[in-house]
Amino acid sequence: MNIILDYNKKGVKKMDFKKLSEKHSATKILMKGVDTTLINSIRRTVMNSVPTFAVEDVTIYENNSALFDEYLGHRLAMIPIKSDPKNSKKGDTVKFVLEKTGPGIVYSRDLKSTDPKIEVIDKNIPIAKLKKDQKIKLEADAVVGLGKEHSKWQPALITFKEVPKVSFDTKQLKDPKRIIAECPKGVLELKAGKIMVADPINADIDLLMKCADIVPAGTMTVGYDTDTYVVTVDNFGNHETLDIFLLAVESLREKTKGFRAELKKT
Fold it and tell me: In sequence order, which residues have a C-beta less than 8 Å from that of residue 69 and are 6 or more positions away?
């Protein structure tokens, strides 16, 4: 997945996205053409300003389970809900209904949406355990909100790390095989007679620094690539990972427009 985004529509700032891996809900993405300020702004915007559905209001008609009404409402609120990001805006509401009598376990799949396009993501989240003749009957209004208001509206957790940048003065390295052997295993490798970092994207900076201590002084320089980052997105499933980024960038763009407008007034 390679995507180029014009951040300000003038070609001054472009971000290059490349998906490195995807395992379960976690996606690793290589981002180029950004600095720490911008990537952290995107991170905060993803967690705070991407609209998603979550249960906000619950009307409980019957509940004689072991869970208090408030506890039951809290569990419902933390169940991720999937929707179309293009057709969802802040304040939109959809109703869910739940009615179940024990014995048995109430699962997230028992929450029935009145809109077939909006539904819970994971159908197997346990909500409550009912004994014989215990019953839960309720209606829940899911509302589109933002993560800055409550964590239940966060679509994902996102972290980033800088990519190490290593350079070698190969003219002074007389015995590259010995250096590779003495360094932590798997950190460096020999290609076409030159020492290279085995995995530049996922290289551990601490292990690289240990290698730098082994080689002759000044022959290995370890630093960071100032415009390349590895971003890890732990997606809760409300939106596709790409859509989350697009929504975050659009939100950030609108915020900067407003900020520039206020600056002009001063």
Answer: 58, 60, 63
29 by Cβ neighbours in 10 Å (0-12 / 13-18 / 19+) ranks as buried
SS3 state at 185: coil
Yes or no: say if 106 and 98 are a contact pair by the CB < 8 Å rule.
yes
Torsion-angle region of residue 8: left (phi > 0), alpha (psi -120 to 50) or beta?
Answer: alpha
Residue 216 is given by DSSP the state: P
Instruction: Give, in order, the Cα–Cα distances in Å from 168 to each of 176, 191, 209, 211, 212.
Output: 11, 13, 13, 11, 10
Q: Is 112 in the same domain as 65? A: yes
Domain end among 153, 169, 187: 153
Domain of 190: which CATH number?
Answer: 3.30.1360.10
From 127, 153, 179, the end of a domain falls on: 153
Give which of 7, 33, 2 is closest to 254, Cα–Cα: 7
pLDDT of the chain, 266 residues: tens digit per residue: 444 444 444 444 567 888 888 888 899 999 888 888 888 999 999 999 999 999 999 999 999 999 999 999 999 999 999 988 877 888 899 999 999 999 999 999 999 999 989 999 999 999 999 999 999 999 999 999 999 999 999 999 999 988 888 887 766 667 777 778 878 888 888 887 777 788 878 888 888 888 878 777 777 888 888 888 999 999 999 999 888 988 888 888 888 887 777 777 77
Residues 40 and 168 in one domain: yes
What DSSP character marks residue 50?
Answer: -
| Any domain includes 148 | yes
